[in-house]
Amino acid sequence: MTQDSWLLLASMALLALAVALWLWGTSRTPLSSASAGGPGGGHFLHKGLPPGPRGLPFLGNLLDLGQDHLPSHLTRLARRYGPVYTLTCGSSTLVVLNSSDVIKEALVRKWSDFAGRPISYTGSLVSGGGRSISLGDYSEEWRVQRRLVHQTLQRYSHSSLQALVRRQALALREVLIGYNGRAVDLAEDFTVAASNVITTLTFEKEYGKESEELQQLHSCLNNIVSLWGSPWISALDSFPLLRKLPNRPFSRLLKEVARRDDIIGRHIKEYKLRDNQSEDSITSSLLKGIEQSIGSEDGVRLTDTHLHMATVDLLIGGTETTAAWLSWTLAFLLHRPQVQTQVYEEMCGVLEGRYPQYSDRPRLPVLGAVISEVLRLRPVAPLAVPHRALRDSSIAGYFIPKDTVIIPNLFGAHHDPSVWSEPNSFRPERFLEGGGGRARDLLAFGGGARLCLGETVARTELFLFTAYLLRDFLFLPGGEGAGLPDLEGEASVVLKVKSYKVIAVPRPLETDLAVGPPNQQSGDTAL
Ligand code: HEM
Predict the structure, then answer these.
(1) pLDDT tens digit string along 172-188?
(2) Known binder of ligand: residue 348?
(3) What residues does heme bind to (predicted)?
(4) What's the pLDDT score for residue 514?
(5) pLDDT 10s digits, 4-49
(6) Residue pLDDT, tens place only, 468-502
(7) Of 25, 46, 83, 506, which sits with the fewest C-beta atoms within 10 Å of its C-beta?
(8) Cα–Cα distance between 296 and 25 in angstroms, integer?
């Protein structure tokens, strides 16, 4: 439990007491008459909902939801309560899905029942009144907005994406060479590279690491993501009475949202004034979509807010995820340096000195296996984004009433021992022929109607960035006493590795396979 969570719990307890006294004094209705004895203890729960851990009166399972590494905690609960269980928080009922089978049943097979997003007070404030793709509820308007962005991303992926990622990968190479073998934390460099892909896609702009504009944009988007994931803010959705109390994190969130809207608004305005807008950019495409939607027959009218929020979606969805994944990959490779050598040797054998292309994927299975294994062990959006049941439905035979919040625990599904042998070990070989790992059980990008909108962009980035980095450099531990990175990580909306340092040693241009990393370790890395 974090200090924040304890403070929150104390406030909640006081509030609960006040509410209980108030209810007792005004209605004289015994509290127990409103409880149906479900796992929440203080809530009416529909009969037939999956069972789950008993919660505190009024607060429900707030203590479970306030845990530091929530994906791991939810995974541990699944060992006790099974792959589907219920939690409550204030007036919300949450059903947590922890296996690939039940997640696919809800998100893919029954997608039309579970494609909604929870409609919440804070969600509406950060998403321009629900007009973002990631937080907007399922509606015709949302479908038109998502389709437009999806089509543009697909078009771009076929035409210019590879060249764009290659340019960023080469720029990253120059930055790493400039470190001259010093031990450095590369997290920020990865963020700049991933972010430049998205800012070029959206408004054709690239930034250097020192750019003040970029720093501002990132600090503001990062603050929004971490504040929005904090228990102080989510409590406002479940306990409306708390909105009446002063709440510093919430005031900060509102300020950051205003700053974000100012920065993005300025960019879009500048972009509109440019004469040389590329047909390919998301902004051009959405501006055209907005024009066409005026007077369209389906009655859907897109506005500047849809364009604004789609830009925010791509910047938030596409920057920290890819950057966090790259940091995880190097962290795991430092733990098993022989895998780094295998990838390098594979590239030397197949590419004969040239840089890889995305179409080389089938000829580089070891690299592909590393990418899959890191996506499995550390899905960077470990709990996806919460879904909402649009109608009464069922999962694994349990009744799921309309409006239930569904949490797909992708981290849990990827650590399910009935699907993955040695689920906690970094073993890319499980994805090689005969290794037993099935790529179809990976759910790192979610599934169904809400499948990650940037999956094609992300897959191109993961492949090319990793291939370029491992072709050009040998990575060695660079922490104090050359310690290896901690592999547990910090889980918020994005699952990130704790900061660590690494030394990037340039590989000789003429491939010299005799040179492998010193101090090779053998065996698996038990996490
Ligand atoms: C390693 C990289 C990435 C991973 C693992 C990842 C994973 C995910 C996951 C799990 C979801 C939630 C799916 C659900 O609600 O069921 C999601 C949604 C989303 N992602 Fe990604 N993502 C990645 C990169 C990207 C990139 C590069 C972009 C943008 C170019 C992006 C844009 C989005 C958007 C807009 C959504 C919301 C989709 C919707 O609600 O319909 N993501 N992503």
Answers:
(1) 999 999 999 999 999 99
(2) no
(3) 452
(4) 38
(5) 555 555 555 555 544 443 443 333 332 222 233 333 333 445 678 9
(6) 999 999 999 996 676 899 999 998 889 999 999 99
(7) 25
(8) 56
Q: How far does residue 36's CA lie from ligand 1's centre (Å)?
A: 38
Tell me, rounded to whole angstroms, the distance of Cα 379 from its chain centroid. 8
CA of 316 to the centre of ligand 1 (A): 9
Residue of 150, 321, 409 with the most ligand 1 atoms within 8 Å of its CB, for mutation: 321
Query: In the chain, what are the domains?
Result: 99-506 (1.10.630.10)
Among 391, 283, 385, 311, CA closest to 131: 311
Query: How far is the CA of 195 from the CAs of 240, 385, 404, 473, in angstroms?
Result: 36, 21, 34, 22
- Report the pLDDT averaged over residues 52-73: 91
> What distance in angstroms lies between residue 193's CA and the mean position of ligand 1's atoms?
18
What CA–CA distances, in Å, run from 499 to 162, 188, 331, 474, 486? 29, 10, 10, 19, 9
Q: Which ligand 1 atom is nearest residue 313's CA?
A: 35
How close is the Cα of 123 to the center of ligand 1, in Å?
17
Stronger pLDDT, 112 or 202, i.e. the higher one: 112
User: How many Cβ atoms from other residues are within 10 Å of residue 216's Cβ?
Assistant: 14
Pocket of ligand 1 (CB under 6 A): 107, 133-134, 146, 198, 313-314, 317-318, 321-322, 325, 379-381, 384-385, 408, 444-446, 450, 452-454, 457-458
